[in-house]
Design brief:
Blueprint (H helix, E strand, L loop, with lengths): L1 H10 L2 E5 H10 L1 E5 L2 E4 L1 E6 L9 H6 L7 E2 L4 H14 L5 E6 L3 H4 L2 H10 L3 E7 L33 E4 L6 H13 L6 E7 L6 E5 L6 E3 L8 H12 L4 E5 L1 H5 L3 H11 L3 E3 L14 E4 L6 H9 L2 E5 L5 H4 L10 E6 L2 H4 L5 E4 L2 H12 L6 H21 L14 H11 L5 E5 L3 H8 L8 E4 L7 H16 L5 E6 H6 L3 H8 L4 E6 L4 H9 L23 H7 L3 E4 L3 H13 L4 E6 L25 H12 L9
Parallel strand pairs: 2-11, 4-5, 4-6, 6-7, 7-9, 8-9, 12-13, 12-15, 13-14, 15-16, 16-17, 18-19, 18-20, 20-21, 21-23, 22-23
Antiparallel strand pairs: 1-10, 2-3
Length: 635
């Protein structure tokens, strides 16, 4: 018996590694198959070093710098945003990590974790933590809790992560790392992972089985829908006289844009897109009836309002999609195809839990020869044509009377849309630009639009654009990543212009300066309130308001830049940006009050004062509450 045990131990070869070394070695051994090619699942990461991660994790990353390239960011929050932008561009098939020291470096990533969690995107956060032994307590950057000494700022991530762990012994990696990777690749549970790495444990050694580090190839799991759910969905759709498909971001993550188009065309069902689902179809597709919801189009919202059956595919039905649940008729039925059970059953929808790429063909087969009544398809074509004419007018710098219109977001978006290449990728987030890009952008190629409006996070644009460019240039090195950003978001987080120049990852950044947080000023005014603390001119300031020289600022970070004053100048500047060998920033002023897209909006629920000294506020409250009448009550 003793001899056999000795043989078994000899067969189970081990490697003595520190916890940090084992973590990095494991990540480097994880692969994924994409389009018939095997590549590393982790494409590298972003790091700012401090005493909490430089000595041990930094040593391990240095020894794997070729397999896992490390990019030095300027801010922990923006590093994690860049990782998110990369993961989204890669359609969740690859991820990147972000590593921070301890204390404020860690908490800077909380906002980014919220973005990844809301949008169901893979992000791995590796952060320093307090010493497990507690011998040197209290330590630098430690927030003490006298009644709970095991609590640290890292615990704050529990509410914004799909998987959270603190590695208090090197052996924990044997369980925690596979669980973390499984979360990052799971279609239904995909989201951010946080690993707290105590500073002493990072350097502790353990005899890890060699087998733990053998290369492993992961595959995207595809769940087929249940037969009973498919049959029920098909039965309901067969009776539909006015069906509409709402296509969400999950269509792209499932790689199901082809299946969506084939399904829609076989059964002649009009398709509308969510914000996350923009670019599921190209603009020229005759069944693409535009974006739906609060920032949508008349074409999509008019169809949704009269639809009798809504087929929601890969969407979590956020309030901007549903118009706070006023966009649909009270008696309309919802059939929801989603890989996530939680999303599939929302608002008493008939759930079909399954992967869109598998489920849509199966559902199509169950529908047989069903085709939408021709009158409804003709109605959709008319709505689509009318919206196209509105977009033409909205993007024109010349008014119907021949006068010059104030420069607007829509004009800027329309001009760039006209002259960009089909495979260029567009990035926007927060403020007024997500709504304007969603409504006005005419998609030229599938999957080419990233509007981060799940968490609606200011500051994502430039950082997310940098990460998106890292992924975009892998397949489209000659195409560009175009970032639309307002002056508010630019001032909040712009340092990755410098990062992109250092990394040789060119972006074209279009800065629309409207003198503050103009879209919130618009909401403020629309609810009867006076302009206050949104536009720079309405803030408490000690000097005359002045515009930031964004051109000079961008040049100071190594980018090429210029300022333009007309749409014609913008198009010329964009051509020069196309030829630039580095990030190019184009700045212009747009009107804060005129030029907003006026059509295509549904009602949106916001809190308004029931009691006020202002007659305007009271009137706005009454008008706003009147819009609640068609709101669905959970059915």
């Amino acid at each position: 018996m003793l001899f056999r045990e000795e043989l078994r131990l000899m067969a189970e070869k081990t490697l003595r590694l520190t916890m940090a070394q084992a973590l990095v070695r494991y990540l480097a051994a994880q692969f994924v198959e994409i389009d018939g090619q095997t590549v590393r699942f982790c494409a590298g990461g972003f790091g700012i070093f401090g005493h909490g991660n430089v000595t041990c994790l930094g040593e391990a990353l240095y020894n794997h710098r070729d397999e896992l390239p490390l990019w030095r960011g300027q801010n922990e929050q923006s590093m994690a945003m860049a990782a998110i932008g990369y993961a989204k561009q890669q359609l969740r098939r690859r991820f990147m990590f972000a590593t921070t020291s301890a204390g404020p470096g860690t908490t800077n990533m909380l906002t980014s974790a919220g973005i990844a969690h809301t949008n169901r995107l893979p992000l791995l956060m590796l952060s320093g933590d307090a010493f497990v032994t507690r011998l040197p307590d209290p330590v630098l950057q430690q927030v003490e809790h006298p009644g709970n000494p095991s609590l640290s700022v890292n615990d704050a991530f529990k509410s914004v992560t799909r998987y959270w762990d603190r590695i208090t012994h090197p052996a924990q990696l044997l369980q925690s790392l596979p669980a973390a990777v499984n979360t990052l690749i799971d279609p239904a549970d995909c989201g951010p992972v946080f690993l707290g790495l105590p500073q002493d444990v990072q350097g502790w050694a353990y005899d890890y089985p060699e087998k733990f580090f053998e290369p492993k190839i992961h595959y995207m799991r595809r769940q087929a829908a249940d037969g009973h759910e498919l049959a029920a969905a098909a039965e309901r759709l067969k009776s539909a006289e006015r069906p509409v498909i709402i296509a969400g971001g999950g269509v792209q993550y499932s790689l199901a844009t082809k299946e969506l188009r084939e399904f829609a065309h076989k059964h002649r069902i009009p398709v509308v897109e969510t914000i996350a689902g923009r670019a599921n179809l190209v603009y020229g597709d005759d069944l693409n009836c535009g974006p739906i919801g609060v920032t949508g189009s008349n074409s999509a919202n008019n169809l949704a309002k009269d639809a009798d059956v809504i087929l929601a595919v890969g969407t979590r039905l956020q309030d901007f999609t549903t118009g706070s649940w006023t966009a649909f008729a009270e008696d309309a039925d919802i059939v929801s195809v989603n890989v996530g059970r939680h999303d599939a059953g929302k608002h008493m929808a008939l759930p079909v839990v399954g992967d869109a790429k598998l489920t849509l063909p199966d559902l199509s087969e169950a529908l047989g020869s069903y085709v939408t009544p021709s009158g409804w398809v003709e109605r959709a074509a008319h709505e689509r044509a009318d919206w196209g004419m509105y977009l033409d007018e909205n993007a024109s710098p010349i008014g119907k009377d021949g006068s010059n219109r104030p420069m607007s977001y829509a004009q800027v978006i329309g001009a760039i849309n006209e002259v960009c290449d089909a495979e260029d990728r567009v990035v926007a987030a927060a403020g007024g630009l997500p709504a304007e890009v969603t409504a006005n952008w005419r998609t030229k190629s599938l999957g080419s639009v990233d509007v981060e409006f799940g968490f609606s996070c200011m500051g994502y644009e430039i950082a997310g654009g940098w990460g998106a460019r890292l992924g975009h240039q892998e397949k489209h090195p000659d195409q560009d990543t175009i970032v639309f950003v307002g002056d508010g978001s630019y001032l909040l987080m712009n340092s990755d212009i410098y990062s992109s120049v250092l990394a040789g990852t060119k972006m074209i950044v279009v800065v629309c300066d409207n003198g503050g947080f103009a879209v919130i000023n618009k909401l403020q005014n629309n609810t009867g309130n006076e302009s206050f603390n949104n536009l720079i001119s309405d803030c408490k300031i000690a000097v005359e308001p002045f515009a930031v020289d964004f051109e000079a600022h961008a040049r100071a970070m190594g980018a090429n830049a210029e300022t333009v004053h007309s749409i014609a100048e913008l198009k010329d500047a964009f051509a020069r940006a196309k030829q630039s060998d580095r990030t190019y920033v184009i700045s212009m002023q747009v009107d804060a009050f005129e030029g907003w897209t006026q059509e295509g909006h549904t009602w949106w629920e916001v809190g308004t004062p029931e009691v006020s000294n202002s007659e305007r506020v009271r009137k706005a409250h009454e008008d706003w509450e009147a819009g609640r009448a068609p709101q669905r009550k959970g059915v």
